[in-house]
User: Which sequence fits this backbone?
């Protein structure tokens, strides 16, 4: 049985579907219970309250750990519940580049030999933040319109996670996950417009304007770190990694593919 935490998220949802379609017994854990595919067991649980996870983790052969952004606890009690199960941690590219602390990765690596760490870069699904302005005004406002990053389709993260959960040969590996090519916010706006069949205007924001918006849903230090990456990425943050193709045997999906699949959110 495979446990997926964060099962209602942009990675968790497709991961649950992939595992269920592969015939696996899946327990989907989230802070709120939602409808899951037939055969999937949904359980309420919170990494901040490890005892809520005990029923879900019992008998697990593998566990996918998605640590929420507001998590301020330690992973060790959660990992203790996982026991000998194979653990796949959704980390971040920022750990590899030194922008984020490595404490969760260190905990997972210290828990035993059956671990895999995934370090994705920016998610294509971050474009959902533009959905309301595209629907109502056919505009996208963002800073650093011509700075490109290789944003990644969450479905590809889910596919790599599924491979790591199902195949023990991925144990002990750390995978850097990116999209197939750097893409700018201006190019993302054009791709969304192409998916909609009508133009979407791009409006440049200053760093200060963007920060004021971000402070509505993230702490100041997170907003500043995010803007640093968006405005002045390092060479490592702009590099296209081969790891998605190495694991899946195919290249990662481009942003335009994601925009086409989720065009309905912008109509």
Assistant:
């Amino acid at each position: 049985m495979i446990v997926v935490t964060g099962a209602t998220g942009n990675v968790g949802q497709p991961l649950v579907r992939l595992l269920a379609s592969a015939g696996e017994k899946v327990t989907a854990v989230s802070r709120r219970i939602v409808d899951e595919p037939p055969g999937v067991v949904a359980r309420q649980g919170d990494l901040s309250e490890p005892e809520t996870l005990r029923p879900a983790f019992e008998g697990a052969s593998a566990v996918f750990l998605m640590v929420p952004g507001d998590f301020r606890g330690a992973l060790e009690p959660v990992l203790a519940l996982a026991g000998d199960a194979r653990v796949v941690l959704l980390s971040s590219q920022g750990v590899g580049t030194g922008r984020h602390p490595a404490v969760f990765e260190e905990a997972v690596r210290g828990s035993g030999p059956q671990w895999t760490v995934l370090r994705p870069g920016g998610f294509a699904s971050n474009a959902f933040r533009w959905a309301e302005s595209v629907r109502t005004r056919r505009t996208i406002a963002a800073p650093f319109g011509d700075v490109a990053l290789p944003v990644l389709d969450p479905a590809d993260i889910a596919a790599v996670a599924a491979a790591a959960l199902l195949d023990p040969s991925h144990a002990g590996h750390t995978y850097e996950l990116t999209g197939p090519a750097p893409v700018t916010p201006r190019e993302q706006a054009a791709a969304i417009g192409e998916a909609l069949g009508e133009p979407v205007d791009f409006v440049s924001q200053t760093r200060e304007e963007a920060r004021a918006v971000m402070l509505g849903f993230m702490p100041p230090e997170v907003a500043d770190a995010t803007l640093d990456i968006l405005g002045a990425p390092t060479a490592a943050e702009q590099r296209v990694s081969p790891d998605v193709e190495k694991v899946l045997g195919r290249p990662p999906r481009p942003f335009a593919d994601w925009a086409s699949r989720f065009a309905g959110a912008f109509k």
